[in-house]
Write a structure and sequence with these properties.
Elements: H1 3-15, H2 20-37, H3 48-52, E1 57-66, E2 72-83, E3 89-95, H4 101-117, E4 124-129, H5 138-152, E5 161-164, H6 171-185, H7 205-222, E6 232-235, H8 240-251, E7 255-256, E8 258-261, E9 264-268, H9 274-286, H10 292-297, E10 301-305, E11 322-324, H11 334-342, E12 347-349, H12 358-367, E13 370-372, H13 374-377, H14 380-394, H15 400-422, H16 431-449
Parallel strand pairs: 3-4, 3-5, 6-7, 6-11, 11-12, 12-13
Antiparallel strand pairs: 1-2, 2-4, 8-9, 9-10
Bound molecules: NADPH dihydro-nicotinamide-adenine-dinucleotide phosphate.
NADPH dihydro-nicotinamide-adenine-dinucleotide phosphate binds next to helix 8.
Length: about 450
């Protein structure tokens, strides 16, 4: 790390001491943006990166609710409104026991850059709660969502801040949140995305992140005149992003051989075809069961329970050409990355946000593989959310073909920006640096134009 990056990080660390994920995300961006800034006089003196590291606003609130036994529960709610230089704050809500302010600041910071890459006018934010929907009844989830929105509604709006889903917030939760917002405001507004198709949603929003991640891999492979056809792929997670990643891989003739949840993973040598994927969707989205059941249902599939004593995740230790981490942050460490490379993986397209540790990323870059960082590769979800906002504004619904065509165009454009800003001498494309610099330039120019605000 250069002296300038080190000095910059010292300041950020002093201000945000107990936020390791946030510091990790900032350092990753600073390492590529600061060297660029040194050669870009128009950005000097304005302290743009320092300003981007400070949320425009943070709201933190109590979320009290009553469980099915009649007992009072208390959770904590957050919304981090990070940057609105290029549009209203936009980014998901995460409901998971691990949620805290530092984690949401990391996600909101990443979101600013990701949203800038989509070519759409959307700023960045993120929110959520330490509430765990796992094991809760539908009524409990509804009561929690209603209480959460009873505070959040005064801070958001169709032209101010438009949340969406993330881990633990799917179609069910968005429905309850939207219902409560509408009731409180007495208006039917495009204030959340990921809405149902019959009440203001966009075709393809559920599919968008997973499909987009695969399109991004396809674009990277195309630079080597290759396609996904016949490739074996490791996918982690089994939620929204993982499911639609597998679906698109199947459509393009690739084979996904793994899926996971926090209890363990399944390996299916024969590939997770359409019928098996339908089982996973029903298992995860309707019955809300565990991935272990996959191995009970399909002969030949092997289940391995998660072992907290291991220093690596064996999911990443199977022969494959492509990896699509789609569960959570820092799920691939240095040892996992070494395993991936040894097993022949040369395409990593990140569905999750920051799933690879800095040491893992360093190995991808040293090995010069095709590495698409989350903020570029998984931007398809927020891009279709942006398209949902556009449809809500004009009061029309575009066809699924139309939305998919736009999504493909956006993923192509994101890839193009990464190549433009990330090509190194010798021709290697550093997509991580390219995504950071391209996004920074867009947000920085808007901030410069709007003065010191
Ligand atoms: P879901 O809640 O639908 O699924 C998350 C999956 O990851 C589940 O299988 C879950 O298992 C697993 N998981 C979550 N936390 C952990 C953990 N700590 N350890 C191991 N496994 C874990 O979420 P999404 O699919 O929506 O999101 C997955 C990732 O993609 C996240 O990083 C999210 O930020 C990112 N993302 C999502 C977008 C979207 O549109 N949904 C857009 C862009 C990025 P379990 O059920 O056991 O917890």
């Amino acid at each position: 790390m250069s002296d300038t990056v080190q000095a910059f990080m010292e300041g950020i660390r002093a201000k945000n001491p107990a936020e390791p994920e946030f510091l990790q995300a900032v350092e990753e961006v600073a390492a590529s943006v600061i060297p660029y800034l040194e050669k870009a006089p128009r950005f000097q003196k304005a302290r743009l990166l320092e300003r981007m590291c400070e949320p425009e606003r943070v709201v933190m609130f109590r979320v009290p609710w009553v469980d099915d036994r009649g007992e009072v529960q208390v959770n904590r709610g957050f919304r981090v409104e990070m940057n609105s230089a290029i549009g209203p704050y936009k980014g998901g809500l995460r409901f998971h026991p691990s949620v805290n302010l530092g984690m949401l600041k990391f996600l909101a910071f990443e979101q600013v850059f990701k949203n800038a890459l989509t070519t759409l006018p959307i700023g960045g934010g993120k929110g959520g709660s330490d509430f765990d929907p796992k094991g809760k009844s539908d009524h409990e989830v509804m009561r929690f969502c209603q209480s959460f929105m009873t505070e959040l509604f005064r801070h958001i709006g169709a032209n101010t801040d438009v949340p969406a889903g993330d881990i633990g917030v799917g179609a069910r939760e968005i429905g309850y949140l939207f219902g409560q917002y509408k009731r409180l405001r007495n208006e039917f507004a495009g204030v959340l995305t990921g809405k149902g198709m019959d009440w203001g949603g966009s075709c393809l929003r559920p599919e968008a992140t997973g499909y987009g991640v695969v399109y991004f891999a396809q674009e990277m492979l195309a630079t080597q005149r290759e396609t996904l056809k016949g490739k074996r792929c490791l996918v982690s997670g089994s939620g929204n992003v993982a499911q639609y990643t597998v679906e698109k891989l199947n459509q393009l003739g690739a084979a996904a051989v793994t899926l996971s949840d926090s209890s363990g993973y399944v390996y299916d040598e024969a590939g997770i075809d359409g019928e098996k994927l339908a089982f996973v969707k029903e298992l995860k989205n309707v019955r809300r069961g565990r991935i272990k059941e996959y191995a009970d249902a399909f002969k030949g599939a092997v289940y391995t329970p998660a072992d907290p004593k291991l220093d690596h995740n064996p999911l990443w230790n199977h022969k494959a050409q492509c990896a699509f981490p789609s569960a959570t942050q820092n799920e691939i460490n240095a040892k996992d990355a070494a395993g991936l490379l040894e097993n022949g993986v040369y395409v990593v397209s990140e569905g999750a946000n920051m799933p690879s540790t800095p040491e893992a990323t360093e190995q991808y870059l040293d090995a010069r593989i095709l590495y698409g960082p989350g903020k570029a590769a998984n931007a398809g979800g927020v891009a279709v959310s942006g398209l949902e906002m556009a449809q809500n504004r004009i009061g029309l619904m575009w066809s699924c073909d139309d939305v998919e065509h736009r999504l493909q165009g956006i993923m192509k454009a994101i890839h193009g920006q990464c190549v433009q800003f990330g090509r190194e001498s010798g021709g290697f494309v550093n997509y991580a640096a390219g995504a950071n610099i391209a996004a920074f330039v867009k947000v920085a120019d808007a901030m410069l134009a709007q003065g010191v605000v």
